[in-house]
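In practice, a research group might receive sequence data for several interacting partners and want a quick structural hypothesis before committing to experiments. The following worked case mirrors that situation: the sequences arrive first, and a predicted assembly follows.
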Amino acid sequence: VSTHPHSHGAPRLSVDFFDGRSARAQRVSIWIDQDTLYVQGIDAEHHLPLHEVKWSEKTRHGPRLAHLNEGGTLQAVSKSEWDEWLHRHHLDRSVVVRLQQSWAWTLLAMAVLTALIGAGYLWGLPLVTRTLTPLIPLSTDQQIGQSTLSTLDGRWLHPSKVPQATQQRIQAQFEGALSHYAQQHQQVRSYRFQLHFRSSSVGPNAFALPGGDMVVTDELVTMLADSPDVLLGVLGHELGHVAARHGMRTLIQSGVLGAVTSVALGDVSSLLAGAPALMGQMAYSRDFEREADDTSIAFMQANGIRPSTMVTLFDKLAAYSQARHKDKKRGTALLGIAFSSHPADAERVAHFKAADTSSSP
Amino acid sequence: MNHTPAPSEPGGLTATSLITANPVSVLPRQTLSTVSVHPIEFTGSGSEYFRIWIVNLLLLLVTLGLYYPWAKVRKLRYFHGNTLVAGHPLDFHGEPRKMFRGFMLVSIMMVLYSVAGRVSHIGGTIAGLILALLWPALMRASMQFRLANTSWRGLRFAFKGSMKEAYLIWVMPLLLLASSSVLAALVVGATPASARPVGIILAGLLVMLMAAALGPYVWWRLKRYQHNHYALGQWQTTFKASYGDMVKVFVRTALVSVAGLLLATLLIVALLMIGFANVSHDIHNKATWLPRVLQWLPFALLIVVLTQIAQGPYFKSRMQNLIWTQTGNRHVRFKSHLAFWPLLGLTLKNTLLMVLTLGLYWPFATIAMARIKLQAISVHTRQDPDELLAQAQSTYKDAAGDLAADLIGIDVGL
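A structural hypothesis for the assembly, expressed as tokens:
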């Protein structure tokens, strides 16, 4: 039956052949002629197109194997002869294998890897987030915001002790200011802003939840009782977070970062894979704070308030935290508007001050 | 076993056997045949795997993760190829192109699952429930895929566990859980109102005890299902470890943990006594000793963590030894001698170097861990491997099994 041509000239290689039916090795001789691989032994005779043979990658210690298409396997008797034979037939030209074999290329790959990770983090991630965020309906933001608020209500937030009249006055002031601002910034009309007054142990604070719910603590209301403009500035800042969907963007960012790192590092450990997602949020939220400050400035300007008024807030916050430290009470950090991830106060104060001169309504 | 033992010919042993002639004393003299012992050898190298890993990582990143199946096959072929049994390497036959479909499917499923969980609790619960219902089938598929794509001397391994058995694993544990809950409810109901708290405590204890016993029980049933159904040619493994054996490992691990805690307590007390010898006269003034306690707190935590590191390697070594030494029968059996102290030493070394190199040591650690675990195992056969013949079996080529393996992360357990 065999019609194999003579192998004159074609270099032969002696290997072990396993037919896939028995574990017994058969010593065979193989050679290549015109893109066909010939296998010949006492009980075995095969030929098949060369492209159907899968040669194992060359490694220092690993075996030399080849998978034939119908279940047979070739195994090297002598690794060096096998390598030489493959090299002669130009069957060892995989780029990946050559990369893997060279330390120089591996180090270069490492450098490229680091550069790619850096670039992806700096530019790729924000880009992906900006693209994905509009695809998610606003109702999702609202759902998340509401479930977060109900969780917080059970644990950290308590009913407000601010008189109803004060609450209503602040609400009315905010709504008035919002309608002024909305004349120039139409897009905020699609949000349903809602103020929530709560007492809490976190001190003077305000924070926005995705979708438009904003929480103001009693301490902040008390602290800013004589400067309603500053309170509007703070609310403008929170409005900035909502309108730019910072909450949703953070969620998407951590999701994307988590997915990427778990594919890349998933092997290492889930703990390690989760860490970058956490770290990513700190750096990004600084940018978010600056963005929210810009909205706050625009919000105040739309209502004829000088942005430099906000300096009062920083002074009062500083005084508050100093008083706290003097009292030697617990060293409760001021969260939210004075969160650790916020840009340095001095920088922000300068920004608010500079806004006075830049453009006034 | 569904096949008759092949006639054994003393002396007619294989060209590959390394050690021979270990008569097994339990068997009658006439049926004695030589047992050949094949230690498993692992030849992987950390530096080589490091380069494979880096290049894989780069390609993964450049392709935004789409390269994953190729990277995975390369890794598996490296580990399989460097695992030598009786001088012959294992081989992996999975095809990345086919595995790619499974990979895409699993990625989409994971995204849907996490989105479902984030958007609504009900969606997440339903997705979780579906996953739980599919889990036994997925586990079986993953075992089938992994084994059917692994070969030794040209013969493919097989996983012979049936779908029915895969689901039956869970029947008894679930029944026990349900009945203990009912019993607990009855205990609470039966106690008079005056003794209600006692009843509740009793019921709680009952449930806790059942939960503690169920963990090893489920693990045992799972391992029994897996290790009863590995096959190569005429050989099929049998799992002989009992539930009691399994519980012992769990209990001993718990004891190691408790011993670690005791040791930590002793060390901390000793440290406190040294560090606070001079403030003892002023014990009522918080200001003198409170800052010092806070200063010492990290050390105390470090001591606790260090004494708790031991239980991981302890459990791993004892469990591997139990499971693999109890796997086998007259024709083929395994023996595992994974020692605790070297494994603990390696774990500490790996952890330390991983931290110092910010994770770059990971490939070296993986290789070292694979080496210590694999080289602790030897295969004992009574039959010349040359006589192994492929059994009529439909070769399992469905790459869906691979996605299952990725999804539930179960493996052959080495």
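Before designing any experiment, note the following. Chain B touches chain A through 48 residues (CB under 8 Å). The longest helix of chain B spans residues 243-275.
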